[in-house]
């Protein structure tokens, strides 16, 4: 062993000045013996055990409290003919007792981080060592009170703090060691759970980790009422963020007033439940105290309903409105009500269902869609400009038109919300972060124009074919009567003429509408989409009519062979049901197969790459 002379303060807390001692650093043999609990290695040691340390001022008892004993290998029978090797720590009570008997001051000696052995054992969950340390502390008190422990016995040891003001209670709660915590609580149920330097109490740490058993143990067996955490949060905030519904219920039963207690940002536990999509927890909070829904945060003036809306959490919005309908008209600092957010984050079909089911258009809430914010924008303005416009493609004929500059300003506002809004590391709904293209964007205009030209070509082709068919009628003309069709009295021929005319007129109207679009300004983008939609409907109708004209015309000229005529006509008319079947298959593929594929991709990403990669696949889900 190498003798060194630097001074070291006594680890026993006292009002007297610290003593200077010559310390000795452990060599490899003694360090391994301390880790394994080898008593014989220290039986003949000439150095005082409180002076024998490692580079971090850890004593033999610190090291043993960290390792938990000798590592042994056991053969365990797994199957009738097989065995497997299991590595376990073998704890020795005798080793700890001999160390403490030889040098009682080890119980309270601190390392470089001001940790005593009890801190180390509590952090690593060695309940056996914790139990022995507590017992030996009480024994040492009765044998010789002047050897380091005051009149409170083991409680003095339990209440000692490290450099971050953590007690053994804090460390056991942080790392979820319930057995250790039970021993500590049993020994000192009167301990006041004060906070460490980070503002965390043991109750907060247990709730944050989702350790329901530990929270229950402290609430049922301790007299402390301290439940605070950093940034003004409470243990209830922590339980909500951890998503632990059982702990939330337990805390509410014990501390009812926590449901409305806000953190430094003015957010209640209900705010976090809404933002993180914890519907079952939000339901519990609302059932206990629905008035928390009326509290707005300090940063943005948002209520829990706002936060549920901007995350697109339809279920939580329903819970809040059903328990507290009066909060629907609340606005944030921008003057936005919850529908300003909902029309962006919730898909149009789900939003319509939500509004109908919750009767938002009735009574005092019927004008929510037309309430203006501080900039004069209503939820309807946001709806017609935000991502819903991209999903719908175009709007119904009764939608109003927006000025282009107004649309640009609203899109910029939505982008700002998406770029700057984040709560506890979770950003708002992706729809707030989607870059909506400017209507003057060249690539956007080119795509629309190419699509329009393709549709125009199809309409012109249908018009040309049906025009030619009208003058080259099936069966030809009678040679003895000028201009009289041979099959003019046949019902099938009459059906051919009518459907061919409908196809020609519909396709010609579609051509004229596309021609009109050339003279329509791009600032009226919504009107352009409505005209394109009408033209597409006419072209589709013309195509159906043309197929019927082909089938009836074929039937008219092939009536001499009735079986052949019926077969030809039937094959031609299969176009219509075939079209609907193809559409149904298309919807099924996108709605079921693609959604399942995306789900498995997200699951794989979460398991292998983390949730950040899974978010990349979320835009692939098609809304039906």
From TrEMBL:
It comes from the Eukaryota. GO terms for cellular component: plasma membrane. Its main location: membrane. The chain crosses the membrane at residues 456-477, 497-519, 531-558, 578-601. It is found in: Membrane. ANK repeats lie at residues 113-145, 164-196, 231-263, 265-297. Keywords: ANK repeat, Membrane, Repeat, Transmembrane, Transmembrane helix. InterPro entries: Ankyrin_rpt (IPR002110), Ankyrin_rpt-contain_sf (IPR036770), PGG_dom (IPR026961). This is Ankyrin repeat-containing protein At5g02620-like. It comes from Durio zibethinus (Durian). The gene is LOC111279444.
């Amino acid at each position: 062993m190498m003798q060194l002379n630097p001074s070291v303060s006594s680890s026993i807390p006292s009002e007297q000045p610290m003593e200077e001692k010559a310390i000795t650093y452990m060599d490899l043999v003694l360090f391994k013996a301390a880790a394994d609990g080898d008593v014989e290695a220290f039986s003949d040691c000439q150095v005082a055990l409180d002076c024998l340390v490692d580079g971090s001022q850890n004593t033999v008892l610190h090291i043993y409290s960290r390792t938990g004993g000798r590592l042994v290998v056991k053969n365990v029978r797994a199957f009738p003919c097989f065995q497997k090797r299991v590595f376990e720590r073998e704890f020795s009570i005798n080793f700890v007792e001999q160390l403490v008997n030889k040098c009682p001051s080890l119980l309270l000696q601190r390392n470089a981080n001001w940790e005593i052995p009890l801190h180390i054992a509590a952090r690593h969950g060695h309940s056996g060592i914790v139990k022995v340390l507590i017992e030996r502390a009480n024994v040492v008190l009765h044998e010789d009170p002047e050897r380091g422990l005051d009149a409170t016995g083991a409680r003095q040891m339990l209440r000692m703090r490290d450099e971050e003001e953590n007690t053994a209670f804090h460390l056991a709660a942080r790392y979820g060691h319930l057995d250790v915590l039970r021993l500590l609580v049993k020994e000192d149920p009167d301990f006041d759970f004060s906070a460490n330097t980070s503002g965390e109490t043991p109750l907060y740490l247990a709730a944050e980790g989702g350790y329901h058993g530990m929270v229950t143990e402290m609430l049922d067996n301790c007299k402390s009422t301290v439940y605070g955490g950093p940034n003004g949060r409470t243990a209830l905030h922590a339980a909500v963020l951890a998503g632990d519904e059982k702990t939330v219920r337990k805390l509410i039963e014990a501390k009812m007033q926590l449901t409305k207690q806000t953190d430094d940002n003015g957010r209640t536990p209900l705010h976090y439940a809404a933002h993180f999509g914890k519907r079952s927890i939000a339901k519990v909070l609302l059932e206990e105290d629905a008035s928390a829904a009326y509290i707005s945060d300090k940063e943005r003036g948002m209520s829990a309903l706002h936060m549920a809306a901007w995350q697109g959490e339809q279920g939580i919005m329903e819970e809040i409105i059903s328990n507290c309908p009066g909060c629907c008209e609340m606005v944030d600092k921008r003057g936005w009500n919850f529908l300003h957010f909902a029309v962006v984050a919730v898909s149009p079909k789900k939003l319509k269902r939500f509004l109908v089911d919750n009767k938002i258009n009735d009574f005092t809430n019927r004008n929510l869609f037309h309430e203006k914010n501080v900039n004069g924008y209503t939820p309807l303005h946001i709806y017609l400009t935000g991502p819903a416009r991209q999903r719908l493609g175009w709007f119904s004929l009764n939608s109003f038109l927006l000025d282009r500059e107004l649309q640009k300003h609203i899109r910029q506002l939505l982008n700002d919300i998406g770029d700057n809004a984040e709560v506890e590391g979770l950003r708002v709904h992706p729809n707030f972060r989607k870059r909506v293209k400017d209507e003057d964007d060249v690539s956007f205009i080119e795509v629309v124009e190419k699509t329009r030209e393709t549709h125009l070509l199809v309409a012109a082709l249908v018009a040309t074919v049906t025009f030619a068919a009208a003058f080259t009628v099936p069966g030809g003309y009678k040679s003895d009567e000028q201009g009289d069709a041979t099959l003019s009295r046949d019902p099938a021929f009459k059906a051919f003429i009518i459907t061919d005319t409908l196809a020609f007129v519909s396709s010609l109207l579609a051509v004229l509408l596309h021609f009109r679009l050339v003279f329509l300004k791009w600032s009226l983008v919504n009107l352009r989409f409505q005209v394109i939609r009408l033209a597409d409907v006419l072209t589709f109708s013309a195509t159906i009519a043309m197929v019927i004209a082909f089938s009836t015309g074929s039937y008219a000229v092939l009536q001499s062979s009735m079986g052949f005529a019926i077969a030809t006509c039937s094959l031609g008319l299969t176009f219509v049901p075939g079209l609907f079947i193809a559409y149904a298959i298309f919807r099924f593929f996108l709605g079921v197969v693609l959604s399942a594929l995306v789900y498995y991709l997200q699951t794989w990403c979460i398991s292998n790459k983390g949730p950040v990669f899974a978010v990349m696949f979320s835009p692939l889900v098609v809304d039906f």
